[in-house]
């Protein structure tokens, strides 16, 4: 069985930042492996360790810069990686769900995996829709927000738990091939070992352009444009206590005593 | 093509709040497009649901009597067929765990753009502007698109619709291809029970990822001891196994309403806030003065928890 994991490098923002136009100014941005994808990679690697998967392949849409993030996934045990990038993607400000789906569909057609794992959402733009849209596109089955997967995949069926709201979980059987969107907490993602990091340097990382995949450049333009970005207006009337930790702790203690909740 | 079709949400025999909120969002949008607001209620006791959903501003309710509980295949097929029949301009769906399990599939099937987790909607009839958040609520954005679209709506952003309406209720004749339903719901389970019920606590000392390591959890426990309070947490703490599931506050954890909620090293992501915004007094201790938690906090300390928390504990010893 082959597993394909979508891996995204997400932008992280410092506490203090400035917005330039419709983006956060570069100097306030960092980059990291998307939290939810980290759990998806771990789940795939565990399936491989359980002897169920022969190969774990990652796919990332992103520029060369994100190769260090891809290597993180390889260091945690994925076998090889595909990175898709193209000049046509350079100027796209929102890569919307439809555009991502078109690109990923082409990769899936080349790779022909039995199981695709994606994160539930990405930490920066949090669309939360790509996995399910991709499944529909491929004619695969799917399940969103999966926080448990039985590792026997009996008779080509994945028994999963979907985490609903309010502490309720839904038990669902999903026929393979399928796309599962993975929720945090499904496992405990490993840290990459030094050995893993060394090995990751030698693992194949294949770069593909839209032309290689047979994807029309027009497909990536998407239907959605970003027209504004701003800091949300705070309606709060929060009282901020100032001073050193002793002072602020003292003010909080006073409040708690006033409220009768502290001795 | 000016109508709005809004899909309602229910679970285990109960309509969920978002079903009444989506009526308000849908009505506002339909007023701007000059069209009608259609609701759909799919699976379960649809006639009973339809009666409850018939609130002010709803023009038509389409019931799809097929199956008991949510199945994404049934929902996708039903919404797609409703779309073909009604030709609405916009389809609204809840940004719930189930909404996200079918809305993207419908969008793909119908070749419509999808925008998720909307907190605001505006249209001049052609262009739809959707307000949504990025970076866990640090910034708000406007995204625009032309023509038809499917949008998922964040819960608790629009008020629930009130008043009795006089909608036309009709049974929609759906054709479900059972061969295409490759997933089967086999049951439900409540999780997060156990010894402590944080939803009963008067004072919660709640810890988030700012605590950095499991070894640091005791400083939170010491504070809770000193205050005779209960320890709760945001999701990452539970994901890491540092506290049990029954301590998790939020959308997929517990809803709490204590007299005092002290959020320590918690950013205030929407899924966390969903569980604690009803607290009487909210105190935030966070190094980031722009963290979204500050929007709902009554009192705040913009400082390092490793300095503030021990100092606070000390004042009670
Ligand atoms: C479907 C779904 C369901 C979810 N359900 C839930 C849920 O039920 N409950 C929940 O909580 N989350 C839930 N989440 C996750 C949620 O989106 C956030 O990821 C999570 O709430 C973040 O937790 P946090 O605030 O502890 O961590 P972070 O967002 O990482 O915030 C840590 C905060 O600590 C501050 N900090 C760091 N160091 C210090 C220091 N030394 N002193 C003081 N402050 C410091 C930082 O400034 C930051 O604000 C869900 C997500 C999804 C997609």
Automatic annotation (TrEMBL), chain A:
Protein name per its UniProtKB record: Electron transfer flavoprotein, beta subunit
Residue ranges the record marks as coiled coil: none
Keywords assigned: Electron transport, Plasmid, Transport
Sequence similarity: Belongs to the ETF beta-subunit/FixA family.
Gene Ontology terms, MF aspect: electron transfer activity
All copies of domain Electron transfer flavoprotein alpha/beta-subunit N-terminal, residue ranges: 21-217
Family matches, as InterPro entries: ETF_a/b_N (IPR014730), ETF_b (IPR012255), ETF_beta_N (IPR033948), Rossmann-like_a/b/a_fold (IPR014729)
Organism: Natrarchaeobaculum sulfurireducens
From TrEMBL, chain B:
The entry's keywords: Plasmid
GO molecular function, one term: flavin adenine dinucleotide binding
Entry's Gene Ontology BP terms: fatty acid beta-oxidation using acyl-CoA dehydrogenase
Domain of life: Archaea
Keyword Protein biosynthesis found: no
Keyword rRNA-binding: no
SMART domains: ETF
Start and end residues of each Electron transfer flavoprotein alpha/beta-subunit N-terminal domain: 4-185
Entry similarity comment: Belongs to the ETF alpha-subunit/FixB family.
Protein name, per record: Electron transfer flavoprotein subunit alpha
Species the sequence originates in: Natrarchaeobaculum sulfurireducens
Lineage: Archaea, Methanobacteriati, Methanobacteriota, Stenosarchaea group, Halobacteria
